[in-house]
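pls design
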């Protein structure tokens, strides 16, 4: 198995794990305030990451790596979890999930800016086509009546996608040198003091009144969404290319909708199958075009 194929395989595993993030967050916000949920999930994941670093003792990042680690942590440890938790107070999980289809385009854009990648022009056509499939599916799948709350939720999801795309690109760039699991562990540990303090200072809820599904949602987003998924994802971005492997995120909305239908009993229309076929075709074409695309050294 060559390096590119291994990158795509690990990226696919990461996407499968991330697909459960929004349904799990939807479960968690039923029992936890979004601010507290963001702090708790990062604190739990950060504590585990610290234990991993202490046990395995990888090389300490170079001085020039720390700004990128801090900015990446701001995107994927703080901004994305907080913005999605806030959004899910206003819109359904199904509606929020379809916005994740815009992540490949955001990741590719930041991959160009931060990762030094230069995909072929045709790559962008398929990236835009895949995103257009998701946008069309979003309009068909979740035709919510216009309201201030829905608009607020949509805008929060767009901001979350931008923050996550940047964090993915930054982490993928650093993973080429540091390794995937090292990058997410260092990001989580960097954020740990602030998140742990936030958890302690936040108003305490009625712990006994939090339902079991909310606890399970917290456990999933803390262990899988914040740590394990990133181990595979950042490694995949490093091996296969940020812009190329990032297109696998086009599959995430549809995997997430299956989970939303199963866990949250939200309806999923047959249009999902047709849209998925179009997205898979775009991913395959984007992969072929990006695989041989030259890269320049990042500035």
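designed seq:
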């Amino acid at each position: 198995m060559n390096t590119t194929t291994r990158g795509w395989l690990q990226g696919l595993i990461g996407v499968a794990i991330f697909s459960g993030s929004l349904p799990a967050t939807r479960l968690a916000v039923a029992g936890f305030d979004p601010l507290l949920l963001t702090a708790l999930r990062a604190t739990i994941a950060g504590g585990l990451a610290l234990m991993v670093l202490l046990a395995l003792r990888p090389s300490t990042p170079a001085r020039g790596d720390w700004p990128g680690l801090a900015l990446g942590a701001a995107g994927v440890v703080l901004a994305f979890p907080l913005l999605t938790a806030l959004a899910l107070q206003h819109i359904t999980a199904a509606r929020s999930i379809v916005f994740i289809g815009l992540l490949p385009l955001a990741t590719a854009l930041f991959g160009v800016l931060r990762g030094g990648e230069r995909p072929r022009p045709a790559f962008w056509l398929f990236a835009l086509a895949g995103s257009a499939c998701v946008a069309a599916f979003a309009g068909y799948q979740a035709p919510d009546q216009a309201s201030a709350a829905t608009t607020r939720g949509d805008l929060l999801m767009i901001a979350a996608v931008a923050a996550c795309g940047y964090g993915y690109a930054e982490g993928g760039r650093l993973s080429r040198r540091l390794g995937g699991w090292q990058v997410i562990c260092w990001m989580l540990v960097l954020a740990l003091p602030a998140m742990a303090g936030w958890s302690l200072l936040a108003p305490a809820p009625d712990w006994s009144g939090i339902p079991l599904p909310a606890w399970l949602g917290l456990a999933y987003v803390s262990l899988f969404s914040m740590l394990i998924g990133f181990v595979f994802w950042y490694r995949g971005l490093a091996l296969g290319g940020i812009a190329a492997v990032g297109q696998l995120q086009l599959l995430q909305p549809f995997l997430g909708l299956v989970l939303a239908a199963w866990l949250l009993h939200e309806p999923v229309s047959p249009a999902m199958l047709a849209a998925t076929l179009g997205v898979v075709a775009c991913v395959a074409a984007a992969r072929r075009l990006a695989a041989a695309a030259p890269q320049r050294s990042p500035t």
